[in-house]
Amino acid sequence: MTDQAVEHARHLNDLGRPADALRVLTPALSSSAATEDALIEAARAQGALGQDHDAVQTLQRAQASHPSSVVLAVSLAERLHHMNDLGGALYHAQGALSLAPQSWVVHAVAANVMSDCGMRDESEHHARTALAMAPDESLSHHAMANALAPPTVRMYDRARLREAEHHLREALRIDPSDDVAMNNLARVQSKRGGGVRAAGTLSRATAANPMEPMFQANMDALLGMLTARAHLVLFVAFLVLRNVGIEDGRLSWPILVVLAMISLGLFAWVGVQLVREVPPAMLRPFLVGFARRQKLAAAWAGLLVVATTFFVAAACVGGDASTALIAVAGVALLAGAVLSWISFFVNRRKA
Questions:
Q1: Does the keyword field hold Ion transport (predicted)?
Q2: Which long-range contacts (CB under 8 A, 24 or more apart) does 162-170 make?
Q3: Of all residues in the chain, what percent are helix, strand and coil, respectively (each to 5)?
Q4: DSSP assignment, residue 294?
Q5: pLDDT for the residue numbered 69
Q6: Second label for 310, Cα 20 to 30 Å away, from 142, 161, 287, 331?
Q7: How confident is the model over 58-80, as a mean pLDDT?
């Protein structure tokens, strides 16, 4: 295969046309004399088409002929990491480190793999090495953020989260269209308590790559968290005010007004923040996609709307009629609590 054909395939891969690139490279795959570059581009196209196992086999075939190739070791580490084969990814990442200890790319890839392997100290060491070598490369900042706040860890030190957010913002400064950085920034913002800000960031990542399952899963988790917070505040307010505001066997009118104001204020705040943070063109798909994938959580959110409606109606009606309306709102809150637990266990089973 000629160098021009390989260059053409590389150009097609860069344009996001992996099927065309693979068609150009078909002779290389059937030839025993395929060059390293041809096999790398073929594996790249196969990976983009979701043919991960074929991509690994192509890279292993190339590595058999070029065992000292750093590019092949790094490519195998990244591909196996993507497939969640952490043992294989770590093996090839360590091999790449032994071949090219002065390469910032190798240190960045090794940091990402080691982070997911639970090797936090080693991951941070290699990430800082990559960052020192290449401070203007987004991959270095990605590696540093991943080392500081790996997705597999539930509890984080807040200082590490702040530093991780800084590095993800740096990655976006270098490449504003980096949807992976936007997704990871949303994850870190959510961990720091900025759920609505995270929703805005994540909506932009999803707009750039709407079919990415990881982005969809993070979106679902984020909207579920916002629903949970709204439910918790409203449920606690209802229980507290119900116990302190009884007058002649029913809730007093001032307490009904307070409940209605809390309900409306809560939803207005979340709504305004979502409208402010999520691009208008993405808001409806953002919510509709959540409702389609998470039917239980969507029903849970719907019950919160029902409870709010009946709290407001009770405040408007007052008197004896408000008792029945408050009872319906309470049942909606209780049913929402049950649905929240069912939704939690269903999602945990899927994970």
A1: no
A2: 162/192, 164/188, 165/189, 165/192, 167/131, 167/141, 167/142, 168/141, 168/142, 170/138, 170/141
A3: 80, 0, 20
A4: -
A5: 92
A6: 287
A7: 92
Nearest to 305 by CA among 279, 273, 271, 282: 271
User: Which residue, among 30, 23, 69, 63, has the nearest Cα to 46 in the 3D structure?
Assistant: 23
Distance in Å from the first CA to the final CA of the chain: 44
Return the structure tokens found at 331: 């049942």
Query: Cα–Cα distance between 90 and 20 in angstroms, integer?
Result: 32
Q: Are 231 and 333 in contact (CB under 8 A)?
A: yes
Residue 226 one-letter amino acid: L
Q: Give the confidence band of 314 by pLDDT, cuts at 50, 70, 90.
A: confident
Structure tokens that stand for 349 in this block: 């089973």
How far apart CA 343 and CA 166 sit, in angstroms, is 33
Provide the pLDDT for residue 247: 60
Average pLDDT of the chain, as a whole number: 82
Q: Read off φ and ψ for residue 214, nearest 5 degrees.
A: -65, -40
- 3-class secondary structure for 230-268? HHHHHHHHHHHHHHHCEECCEECHHHHHHHHHHHHHHHH
List pLDDT tens digits, range 236-261: 888 787 777 666 566 777 887 888 88
At residue 293, the 3 state secondary structure works out as helix
Measured over the CA atoms of residue 173, residue 175, residue 181 and residue 183, the dihedral's sign is positive
Q: What whole-number distance in Å separates Cα of residue 174 and Cα of residue 189? A: 19
Q: Which residue has 């509709």 as its token pair? A: 288
Contact (Cβ atoms closer than 8 angstroms) between residue 230 and residue 267: yes
Q: Which residue has the tokens 């991780």?
A: 164
Cα 126–chain centre separation: 24
Residue 1 in tokens: 């295969």
Structure tokens at 303: 């019950």
pLDDT at 351: 47
Within 10 A of 197 (CB to CB), how many other CB atoms are there? 17
pTM of the model: 0.63
Q: Are 39 and 61 in contact (CB under 8 A)?
A: yes
Question: Quick one: pLDDT at residue 35?
Answer: 86
